[in-house]
Amino acid sequence: MLGFLDMFLLVGSLAVSLAMLVPLTGALVRFRAHYNPKGLQLDPEGDVQPHTGPVITSFFAMLMRVYRIEGWPGLYKGLMPTLLSTSVVTLFLMVFLSDSNLRHGRYSTPSTGVLGMLAYSLFAMLISLPQTIITDRAITTPHKLPYFDPVYSLRILLTPTERRRPWILYLTPGLLAAQVAHIAYVILGLRAVRQLLLPELAHPGLPSKDISVVKLAIFLCLSLASTAILAPLEVIAIRLAIQRNHAAPEFNSISQEEDGDAEEATEYAGVDEDVIGLRTEREPYTGLVDCAKRIIDEEGWSALYRAWWLTMLGCLGGAFS
After folding, report:
1. Which of 197, 223, 275, 287 could form a disulfide with 215 if both were Cys (CB 3.0 to 4.6 A apart)?
2. Phi and psi at residue 86, in whole multiples of 5°?
3. Does the pLDDT at position 191 exceed 90?
């Protein structure tokens, strides 16, 4: 069992990590979820009118906008589902790993080869997919969610169809395909190439003094170039995760189905504008490819590469993990 000091340090490090990461993750999710069409639109009379929603051009501009409109509570949207999932993982590690492993941070995914790693990652993704969907929706909803009333929050975040048949979350069009494609590229592509070029990095127990500088440079270039593939997949995954599943398709991204909630959601006091614009679900994305095409057609190529530099940093960090 962990001692009191070890428990205190573990809980303290978890709290500090969440305090720092939740606002940054929330800004990233909102920036990538924000719908900003480039073209002109038609009003009900058929007249051409420009898009009037907010225009956010950078990750840091989104971070400041969230704070300006919703304050600190807005920055910590998504805290409770993130805290819950993190606590479950931490509890699992405390139960199944030795104290020394936890104290020295020696936990890592199983070293079972490329196929074993792929199977492990896909299983972990399937387990966490509902939590990912709920967290992304909690971050992007314009409504104020209570921290300690999950039933109320789920009535806001999930449609009556999703609450009656929660497994339909796994059938969200294109979402599983986007997640599997991301995992497969990282493991079958980057990890497999790393094992071929730099086995010393793939197996830390091997001597590292003979690492080829040329092979290392090639792998780093490949990791950086992977941003071109992984960043769009991450944007698409967020767009698909916040697209809710309805029994009927004629409802937009904020309204509930008519046979569902009668209660009104709480709004932020004094807020007269939404932080981000959400794409209507009257014409939903029908899959991964359709989502990519519509983003390009409606918002331009740049929308697929929002905060691409964060993906690039993740690729560089993953190259040596």
Report:
1. 197
2. -65, -40
3. no
**Cα–Cα distance measured from residue 130 to residue 198, given in angstroms and rounded to the nearest whole number:** 36
Structure tokens at 135: 């967290």
8 A C-beta contact, residue 58 and residue 66: no
Going by C-beta distance under 8 Å and a sequence separation of 6 or more, which residues neighbour residue 248? 257
Q: What whole-number distance in Å separates Cα of residue 191 and Cα of residue 321? A: 10
Q: What is the DSSP letter of 205?
A: T
CATH number assigned to the domain comprising residue 269: 1.50.40
Total domains present in the chain = 1
Answer whether residue 105 is part of any domain: no
DSSP string, 239-258: HHHTS---SSTT--SSPPPT
* 93-97 average pLDDT score: 61
Ranges of H-type helices in the chain: 4-33, 59-75, 79-96, 99-103, 113-140, 150-157, 160-164, 175-184, 192-197, 199-202, 213-225, 227-241, 288-299, 308-319
Domain that holds residue 65: 4-97+110-250+259-320
Q: How many CB atoms lie within 10 A of CB 294?
A: 16
pLDDT digits over 275-288, tens only? Answer: 999 998 888 999 99
Q: How far apart are CA 1 and CA 7, in angstroms?
A: 10
**Cβ neighbourhood burial of 270 (10 Å; 0-12, 13-18, 19+):** exposed
pLDDT at residue 216 tops 90: no
For the four alpha carbons of 215, 217, 222 and 223, in that order, the dihedral sign comes to positive
Residue 17 lies in a domain: yes
pLDDT at 256: 42
Owner of token pair 């929050």: 153
Kindly list the distances between the CA atom of residue 79 and the CA atoms of 7, 62, 124, 148, 209, in Å, as whole numbers in the listed order. 21, 18, 20, 11, 43
DSSP string for residues in 32-72 = HH-----S-EE-TTS-EE---S----SHHHHHHHHHHHHHH
